[in-house]
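User: Just a sanity check before I run the rest of the batch. Below are the C-alpha cells for the first item. I only need the designed sequence back.
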C-alpha cells in the first residue's frame, strides 16, 4: 500500500533506538524525510547511518539528526533551528523510572509530567499551525498501554501519560480536525526494547527472581506468546501518519499482543 506521504518531513523524537527508531525507519522507507532527535550522540549517529544505509530507503529521502534533550526548551530550540515546518511529528520520551509511589517527591512528579505530558504539548503547539496552513498534519504520541491498564510500579508514567491523553482528546477534536491535522496516541505493550529489559532488571532486584524467569512469565501471559518488535510498531505508526488515516483522530491505538483484557 502506498501511504501517500513520500516527500513529507517528519520529526521523530527518541529515535536513536527502540520504538522511536522503528518509527523513523518505517517513515524513511515510505520516502519521508526525517529529522531524528535523541540525547546520546553516539547512538543517534549510529541510527542516522543505519537509516541512510537502509536498502529500502528511497534515494531522495533525507535523514537529518540533532543531538538534544527534546524535553528542554534549549533542546526544542536546537531542533527548530534546523527546521521549523514538519508535516509529521512523532513524540517520544523515555518513561519515568518504576518504583513505589511513596518514594516519589515533587521533583520526580514534575520531571515525569514535563517529559511525558508537557513536552509533547509544546511540540504540538509549535507545529500545528503550519500543518493547518498546508492542509495536512499527523501527530503521533508514543505513550503506553498503562494508560488503559495502569501498572502499579509505573505510577509516574500512568499519571503523566494519562494527562497527555486527556489533552489530546480535546485538542484533536478542535479546529485541527477540519484542516487535515490529526493527533493520535500509540500505546505500546511489552516490546523487546531496553526499557522492557530495565523493568525486568528492576523487578529482579526487588523480588530476587531471575530476569529470565520474569521475562518468561510476562511473555507467556501475552496471548500472542511473544514480545513485540520495533519494526512492527513503526509500521503501525507509519499508517497513522499516512493519507489513509485522515479519518482517525483522538484515538488511543493499543499494540500489545492482546494483553489488555477489556472490551473497550
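Assistant: Here's the designed sequence for the first item:
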Amino acid at each position: 500500500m502506498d501511504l501517500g506521504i513520500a516527500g513529507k518531513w517528519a520529526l521523530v523524537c527518541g529515535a536513536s533506538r527502540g520504538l522511536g527508531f522503528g518509527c523513523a525507519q518505517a517513515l524513511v522507507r515510505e520516502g519521508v524525510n526525517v529529522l531524528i532527535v535523541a540525547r546520546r550522540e553516539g547512538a543517534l549517529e549510529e541510527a542516522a547511518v543505519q537509516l541512510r544505509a537502509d536498502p529500502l530507503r528511497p534515494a531522495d529521502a533525507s535523514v537529518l539528526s540533532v543531538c538534544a534533550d527534546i524535553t528542554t526548551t534549549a533542546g526544542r530550540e536546537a531542533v527548530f533551528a534546523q527546521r521549523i515546518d514538519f508535516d509529521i511529528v512523532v513524540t517520544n520520551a523515555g518513561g519515568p523510572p518504576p518504583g513505589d509511589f511513596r518514594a516519589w517527591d515533587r521533583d520526580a512528579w514534575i520531571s515525569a509530567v514535563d517529559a511525558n505530558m508537557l513536552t509533547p504539548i509544546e511540540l504540538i503547539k509549535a507545529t500545528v499551525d503550519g500543518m493547518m496552513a498546508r492542509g495536512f498534519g499527523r501527530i503521533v504520541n508514543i505513550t503506553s498501554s498503562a494508560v488503559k491498564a495502569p501498572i502499579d510500579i509505573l505510577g509516574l508514567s500512568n499519571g503523566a501519560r494519562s494527562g497527555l491523553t486527556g489533552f489530546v482528546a480535546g485538542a484533536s477534536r478542535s479546529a485541527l480536525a477540519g484542516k487535515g491535522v490529526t493527533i493520535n496516541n500509540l500505546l505500546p505493550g511489552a516490546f523487546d526494547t531496553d526499557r522492557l529489559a530495565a523493568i525486568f532488571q528492576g523487578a529482579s532486584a526487588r523480588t530476587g527472581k531471575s530476569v529470565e524467569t520474569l521475562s518468561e512469565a510476562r511473555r507467556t501471559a501475552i496471548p500472542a506468546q511473544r514480545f513485540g518488535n520495533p519494526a512492527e510498531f513503526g509500521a503501525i505508526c507509519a499508517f497513522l501518519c499516512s493519507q489513509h488515516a485522515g479519518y482517525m483522530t483522538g484515538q488511543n491505538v493499543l499494540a500489545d499482543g492482546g494483553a489488555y483484557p477489556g472490551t473497550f
